[in-house]
Amino acid sequence: MPWSVSGVEMRKRQAAHIEAPPQAPGQPRPNTCCLCWCGCCKCLWTEDRLERSERQTCTKMDSIETAEEQHPSLEDVLSWSRSFEMMLRSLEGREVFREFLRSEYSEDNLLFWLACEDLKKETNSAVVDEKARIIYEDYVSILSPKEVSLDSRVREGINQTIAEPSNLMYEEAQFQIYTLMHRDSFPRFLNSSVYRDLLANRRRVCLDT
Fold first, then answer.
1. Taking 60 as the threshold, does the pLDDT of residue 197 lie above it?
2. Greatest CA span in the chain, whole angstroms?
3. For residues 181-208, b (16+ Cβ closer than 10 Å) or e, as one string?
4. Angle 193-208/74-82 helices, nearest 10 degrees?
5. Which single residue of 32, 87, 113, 178 could bond 80 by disulfide (Cβ 3.0 to 4.6 Å)?
């Protein structure tokens, strides 16, 4: 008889343990979770793990949203007008400049420049080969719809080195496109509504604060 009563009590404790509401994170769990092996969705260990995963996901998403909501300061925007190089080195500056270039159908110039910057940082020979080939197919080949404007001398030099690519093989072509953007696109960008509207917006924000 004592054994029977003990068995009943044990089943009651197990049932109460399964049906109990999830505990707040950080609170100690009751001992004896003998049913965890079954993978039951009501297992407190499983619930806590899911809660932790959800909290971590929310935290990551909040960080991403915060990063996406960042805007350049008035000082940043003004500095771009003084230095093309400074604008290119700024993530926000590149994005605004790219928006302007897109309106002039010359966005590929900036994308080519960025791809060359990425290639120059690469040290793995296999990756260099792959990235050099992609750059050639995307921006140098006359068959590409995104072909950038390079003079015949620079283009011929690239054709001669493409068989044995290096991370610096596009350096001269990159400088040529850099010069084109600096002398041709950049002055129009500073006079465009894209830049002027952004500048006016940053000034209003400064006055409001």
1. yes
2. 100
3. beeebbeebbebebbeebbeebeeeeee
4. 140
5. 87
What mean pLDDT, rounded, does the chain reach? 79
Q: How far is CA 29 from CA 17, 21, 48, 179, in A?
A: 10, 12, 10, 66
Q: Helices 125-135 and 107-120, interaxial angle, to 10°?
A: 170
Q: What is the mean pLDDT of residues 96-119?
A: 98
| pLDDT > 70: percent of the chain | 67
Degrees to nearest 5, angle at CA 131 with 129 and 132: 65
Rounded distance between C-alpha atoms, residue 134 and residue 146, angstroms: 12
Convert the pLDDT of each residue in 122-160 to its tens digit.
999 999 999 999 999 999 999 999 999 999 999 999 999
The interaxial angle of helices 91-103 and 107-120, nearest 10 deg, is 140
For residues 82 and 158, the answer to whether their CB atoms sit within 8 Å is no
Query: Helices 152-161 & 171-180, crossing angle to 10 degrees?
Result: 150
Amino acid of residue 70: Q
Contact between 200 and 185 (Cβ < 8 Å): no
